[in-house]
Amino acid sequence: MTFTPTDLEVEGAAGGGTGGDPSPAPPPAQRRRLVRAFLRDRVAVACGVYILLVIVMALAAPLLVKLSGYGPLEFDQSAVDPNLGGLPIGWGGGIGAEHWFGVEPGNGRDIFARIVYGARVSMTIALSATVLTSVLGVVFGLVAGYFGGRVDMLISRVMEFLMAFPALIFMIAVLSALPAENRQLLLVVVISFFGWPYLARIVRGQTMSLKEREFVESARASGASSAQIIFKEILPNLASTIIVMTTLAVPGYVGTEAGLSFLGVGVVPPTPSWGQMIASSVPWYAVDPAYFLIPGSFLFLLVLSFTVLGDRVKKIAESGEGRA
């Protein structure tokens, strides 16, 4: 469930679709063309709007819960029928004016409140893991690609080990053995530990190509230090690649968090999580399908939106570099 780019994605992001060396950092005019191309892509815009909607929903969760009238941990026993085993009263799992997305069977917790707070948990973990993964991947990739030799060999061996390791089994084992406190932080650390080599491998290849370019040689001849060359000359030319790869990484981390919560080793109840809600809905599939469909649809659309958006951004960047 961790993000693993295919060779095609690596080649497309690394070579800008032309199979050659990456181009220098795009000028402002080219960046404006890329923005206009993105805004003309209705699918990309729709995916971006949905992602933005989920982010706003997560940030505004306390306000939205006040408007709905029920918190994520509040029980409404009047919304379930004890004579039917706790099934929600009404159509669609109890959907109505009081409970906009219905209630959980058995306990009557408001699904809308748990969806918005679950979005906060999922996005916090996924975005935090993406940031940490990106920092580690970019730094180690730049260092390995620029210095080469023993430094490259050491970092490359570590990357190969982590990429070949059964990450999911390790995550389940580690999270099962650790205490429940600070589980969200542990999820970010564990996911990032296995996620950074995939970006680092791409950045390493890009850096090995860029360090032979004329502008790097010119900076080196002018007396610039290795750190200045790496972070002021090479890193800006990797911006489009990093953006594409991190956009493609987010859905993998969203799915990883949901999958671990589904397996019972992720977010600890009663903290809301979409994966946890899907796991809780398993015994109720036949009698209350809405309990599964609502969190499942939110999760599916979020992963799909990030995946499609990353693919469209990659294609737009490739076409822009090709014209340049």
What brief labels describe this structure?
324 residues; MetI-like fold; two-stranded antiparallel ribbon; disordered N terminus
Report on this structure.
This protein has one domain (7-45, 118-323): MetI-like (MetI-like fold, Orthogonal Bundle). The protein is 69% helix and 1% strand. It has helices spanning 7-15, 28-40, 42-59, 61-68, 111-147, 149-164, 167-177, 183-210, 214-221, 226-234, 239-262, 274-280, 289-323; strands at residues 80-81, 87-88. A two-stranded antiparallel ribbon has the order 1-2. The two termini are 36 Å apart. The model is unreliable at 1-25 (pLDDT under 50).
Compact description:
By secondary structure, the chain is an all-alpha fold. The chain is 69% helix and 1% strand. The two termini are 36 Å apart.
Radius of gyration: 23 Å
- The total beta strand count reads 2
Averaged pLDDT, please? Answer: 84
- Going by CATH, the homologous superfamily would be MetI-like
Strand order of the largest sheet: 1-2
Query: How many domains make up the coordinates?
Result: 1
Please describe the topology of this protein:
Elements: H1 7-15, H2 28-40, H3 42-59, H4 61-68, E1 80-81, E2 87-88, H5 111-147, H6 149-164, H7 167-177, H8 183-210, H9 214-221, H10 226-234, H11 239-262, H12 274-280, H13 289-323
